[in-house]
Amino acid sequence: MTPLADTHVHLLAGLDDGPPTADVALAMCRMLVTEGARHATALAHQNPCYPDNTADRLRASASALASALAEQNIPLSVYPTGEVMLAPTTLEEWRAGHLMSVGDHKQWLLVEMPHGEFVDVLPLAEALKPEGVRLIIAHAERYAELLDDVALTQTWIEAGCLIQVTARALAEPGAPEFEAALKRWAKGGFIHLLGSDGHGIERRRPKLAPGFARLVKWVGRAHAARIASEWGTAILRGEPVQVPAPCPLGRSWFSRLFGA
Ligand SMILES: [Fe+2]
């Protein structure tokens, strides 16, 4: 079995619109284990709607969750993470220590767009580079400006960004055009990480396995495992990760990877 890594799941009880209680958070963790996950973000939003979500608060809450998981013998490793909403002040907030990086390793920031907006991440990516910090674009499939423009996606990846996609979008894309665009991303090597964006046990459940299965179908088991397991696990643990450059259109990621 491929031990999946959920790089986007809200597990910090009462901190945002995720699990309201510790019991619900633990139930979500059990669901994730059933899905095949062994590593997951203990994540909460960091945006103006949740001004109390300081890095210290996320750190403490993730630590409490890790203890509860150990007590209950639930085989899931969790890593404190902020889902940071991009703002003109993001760089300043990072430098002031207000933002929680992925796994608290100070290597990756998981960022989402401000509500109803699409902003250029390149200035922030460039500003963070000398500090050894890179960006992960959370649930990147939500942004048509990016999904429909592989040249732009490529530019962001070349600037050091990684692309995270939601498992449910892969498994149940709905509109054929949306599915075609996701498939183009997957086959072109534009997808690096998988997340459930799970929020609870009633709605927005932490489903990962169907998304992984769809990736296996589109890009084969070995590459699907890089996306759904290897790269995510490395990032959550703070280990180095190297992803191949996406391919120019018309060349498969496979030929790019192996120089065929
Ligand atoms: Fe989220």
Automatic annotation (TrEMBL):
Signal peptide: none
InterPro entries: Caps_polysacc_synth_CpsB/CapC
A Pfam entry, by short name: CpsB_CapC
EC number annotated for this UniProt entry: 3.1.3.48
Reactions catalysed according to its record: O-phospho-L-tyrosyl-[protein] + H2O = L-tyrosyl-[protein] + phosphate
Enzyme class label: hydrolase
Superkingdom of origin: Bacteria
Key words, A-Z: Hydrolase
The family this protein is said to belong to: Belongs to the metallo-dependent hydrolases superfamily. CpsB/CapC family.
Protein name: protein-tyrosine-phosphatase
Organism: Gemmata palustris
Lineage of origin: Bacteria, Pseudomonadati, Planctomycetota, Planctomycetia, Gemmatales
